[in-house]
């Protein structure tokens, strides 16, 4: 019985200390960690759409934002397109999540030159 009384106080103090330090820690934003977000989750600010369909230069794929995701809709025989950043980057690590339908021919192109 004495052993449990002895352990209760240090364990309780340790739990309080862990809770205090956890709650007092400030979450860093991407910029504070040295990262730069390319997508704000709401708009396509900082991005531009380029057409890939040389047969129909006026057509552009439909890129839009929904539920914090960039969505692209294309129609049959209109070709695809590119969503590119307006700013160039020299040294970077690209981190992203992608959802692609299994029947699509799509991907991510880095450091590419579009004609």
Automatic annotation (TrEMBL):
<dbReference type="Pfam" id="PF06439">
    <property type="entry name" value="3keto-disac_hyd"/>
</dbReference>
<dbReference type="InterPro" id="IPR010496">
    <property type="entry name" value="AL/BT2_dom"/>
</dbReference>
<dbReference type="GO" id="GO:0016787">
    <property type="term" value="F:hydrolase activity"/>
</dbReference>
<feature type="domain" description="3-keto-alpha-glucoside-1,2-lyase/3-keto-2-hydroxy-glucal hydratase">
    <location>
        <begin position="34"/>
        <end position="113"/>
    </location>
</feature>
<protein>
    <recommendedName>
        <fullName>3-keto-alpha-glucoside-1,2-lyase/3-keto-2-hydroxy-glucal hydratase domain-containing protein</fullName>
    </recommendedName>
</protein>
């Amino acid at each position: 019985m004495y052993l449990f009384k002895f352990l209760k106080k240090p364990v309780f103090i340790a739990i309080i200390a862990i809770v205090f330090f956890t709650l007092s820690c400030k979450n860093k934003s991407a910029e504070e960690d040295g990262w730069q977000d390319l997508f704000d989750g709401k708009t396509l600010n900082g991005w531009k759409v380029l057409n890939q369909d040389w047969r129909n230069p006026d057509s552009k794929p439909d890129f839009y934002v929904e539920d914090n995701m960039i969505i692209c809709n294309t129609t049959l025989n209109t070709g695809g397109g590119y969503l590119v950043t307006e700013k160039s980057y020299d040294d970077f690590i690209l981190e992203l999540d992608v959802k692609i339908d299994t029947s699509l021919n799509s991907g991510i192109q880095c450091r590419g030159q579009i004609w």
